[in-house]
Amino acid sequence: SRAIKIAPSILSADFADFGREIQAIEAEGADWVHVDVMDGHFVPNITFGPPAVAAFRKHVKTVMDVHIMIAPVDPYIDAFAKAGADFLTAHVEAGPHTHRTLQAIRGAGMKAGVALNPGTPAEAVEHLLDLADLVCVMTVNPGFGGQKFIDMTAKVRKLRAMIGDRPVHIEIDGGVDPVTAPLVAAAGADVLVAGSAVFKGGSVANPSAYGANIRAI
Ligand code: DX5
Ligand code: ZN
Fold first, then answer.
1. Which helix (H) or strand (E) holds 128?
2. How far is the CA of 161 from the centre of ligand 2 (A)?
3. Angle value at C-alpha 38, between 37 and 43, nearest 5 degrees
4. pLDDT tens for residues 95-123?
5. Which residues of this protein are catalytic (predicted)?
């Protein structure tokens, strides 16, 4: 069976203490660090942009997984490459030329991801799978942490079959917790983003709670 990676989302971290929060989740067993960029336009919330992501890079020793909920995407690809993103995941709904966007992300030296909102069918990315290293299935409407999981297991199963033997990750983002994680893992997901479920009950002063939360997923 597939090895499951846990990617804590620092959207649920202390925004005044990102460096120590990143160090804490990595010390407590995070496989990747998930970074949610929101523009107040594609999604109804604003987080941070490339300069902040470049500052996070100095602390991330694992894999920096940058999920950009922004439109347009293409003018910012080079900035995220310079900021040190390992994976850059853009939404298929963010513009009319996702094929070009994924080519540009790889061209800038990053792994390319494509994300699907809950209302978007698997078929929307079928012709992009040779250009993608990761497909992110949103299990909430993007914009905020701590929302209720929307069951997308049928979409995950369909995508895993479409992907076949290509080396493409399926990442789940939104509402992942100890109850929902086994459902999406059984359907074929191998990277689980978790924000509130990792950070709840802990802090940089009490990081062992993060480790217990990660192991519980
Ligand atoms: C949602 C973000 C997610 C979010 C997940 O817009 O893309 O990464 O932080 O948070 P939880 O795990 O709390 O649903
Ligand atoms: Zn995300």
1. none
2. 23
3. 145
4. 999 999 999 999 999 999 999 999 999 99
5. 36, 173
The 10s digit of each residue's pLDDT in 30-43 is 999 999 999 999 99
Q: Which of 36, 65, 133, 190 is catalytic?
A: 36
How remote is the CA of residue 34 from the centroid of ligand 2, in Å?
7
0.95 exceeded by pTM: yes
| pLDDT tens-digit readout, 149-159 | 999 999 999 99
Under 8 Å between Cβ of 111 and 88: yes
Domain with 24 in it: 5-216
- Nearest protein Cα to ligand 1, atom 2: 142
The model's confidence at residue 207, banded by pLDDT at 50, 70 and 90, is very high
140 lines ligand 1 (CB under 6 A): yes
Helix (H, G, I), strand (E, B) or coil at 18: helix
Contact 107, 130 (CB under 8 A): no
CA 196 – ligand 1 centroid, Å: 8
- 173 in active site: yes
Active site residue 86: no
Written as six digits, the tokens of 91 are 């939404």
How many structural domains are present in the chain?
Answer: 1
Query: Is the CB of 11 within 6 Å of ligand 1?
Result: yes
